[in-house]
Amino acid sequence: MLIYGKGKTGKSVSNYMDTRSIPHIIRDDNDFREEDLEKVNTVVVSPGIPFYHKIYKLARKREIEVIGDIEYAYRLYKGYLIAITGTDGKSTTTHIIGQFLKDRDPFVGGNYGEPFINAVKENRKVAVLELSSFQIYSTKTFKPNIAVLLNIDVDHLDWHRRKSHYLLSKFKIFKRLDKKNTAILNFDQEIVRNTKTRAKKYYFSVERLPSRYEGVYSCGNSLIIKTHRKINRIDISDFKLKGIHNIQNLMASVLTAFISGVPIEEIEKKIPQIKPLPYRNQYIKSVNGIDFYNDSKSTTVQSVLKAVESFPDRNIYLILGGTYKGGDFSPLKNYRNIKGIFIIGKDKRLIKSMIKDKNIFLSKSLEEAIKKAEKKAEAKAEKKPAAKAKAEPKAKAEPKEA
């Protein structure tokens, strides 16, 4: 067996094979030679290896199977499996589900946390996996007990190259499901709501679900779980995560836990204990009346917009940038609470050309952008009449990497 990739995933698979005395070699772009393929009948690729990489072409030429680490571990795993995917919110949802199932000592990993192969190594009976489109693409027999699709938007076109390829990778998680499996889908997004699958479907929505649909919807400070047999209400008034997107993440998590057999009272008891993950609208500190938040895990346009929408009554000074992976940044100019956008990274000029707003500033580094944003926020605060200072919303500098 050939393991291609020497990062965390590749090393974990290699370590597992060592413990089981499974013959293998591990390579990457620096030391791979085509003659390595003469010794193997399967190639296990790491998630970062794109489908157009030479290893795929060379393996096909020799009729050697190429699979990813998720598929390899799945063929060995014997437990109950929950898989979560979507463009945004995967890590948060995976984390919350793990908290709801904590009494069952679940393995929580995949794209978030540890590689799936460690669940096999530790003989864990329940696994909760965050799966990226990269990981799903290289599956062949993968079939979770519950598959969750949070949302779909354009992302990772630097890897997939075409939107259609990205979508096919996401929907592939439902391809092999049957009536014994469960699909949990975002009712509020048509492309997700209409997912084709033979699995039993449940939905989550910020609006009341139509009578013929089963699932969960939000109602004020409550979630309503609606099945054909019963209606349950869950209090979420003490849920600490901000934004409608996090209510959606919570609904998907609650529904997953409920279907997995976690009692309603246990779910409700754990909701106040849920804390945001690091780098997701994470409050850092307040300096001279300016609140600093780190949301650097917002790596798509949609996640940036959702973060901005989480602070509707605050003045926002937004730092973003990096490598362009697809998506339209132009909606940012429509948010009146954004008072300045500071763009960094490789594709900063391309991103600026999409937004076309006068309050855009290019910066050479994150440090420079933070200093500029803070200065602008302080200047804005100084212009407020003294008598109204307490009534005005605080300025906000919000570092982001998109």
Structure description:
This protein has 402 residues and is an alpha/beta fold. The chain is globular and about 70 Å long. The longest helix is centred in the C-terminal third of the chain and has 17 residues, at 366-382. α4 packs across α10 (244-259). It has three domains: 2-70, NAD(P)-binding Rossmann-like Domain (Rossmann fold); 77-273, Mur-like, catalytic domain (UDP-N-acetylmuramoyl-L-alanine:D-glutamate ligase), CATH 3.40.1190.10; 282-399, Mur ligase, C-terminal domain (Protein-Tyrosine Phosphatase, Chain A, Alpha-Beta Complex). 42% of the residues are buried. 30% of the residues lie in helices and 23% in strands. Mean pLDDT is 89; it is low at 386-402. Strands 6-7-5-8-9-10-11-12-13 form a nine-stranded mixed sheet. It is built from 14 helices and 19 strands. The chain has helices at residues 8-19, 54-61, 69-74, 90-100, 117-121, 133-137, 157-160, 163-171, 190-193, 244-259, 264-270, 301-309, 348-355, 366-382, and strands at 2-4, 25-27, 42-45, 65-68, 80-85, 107-110, 126-130, 146-149, 182-186, 200-205, 215-219, 222-226, 231-235, 282-287, 290-294, 315-321, 338-344, 360-362, 395-399.
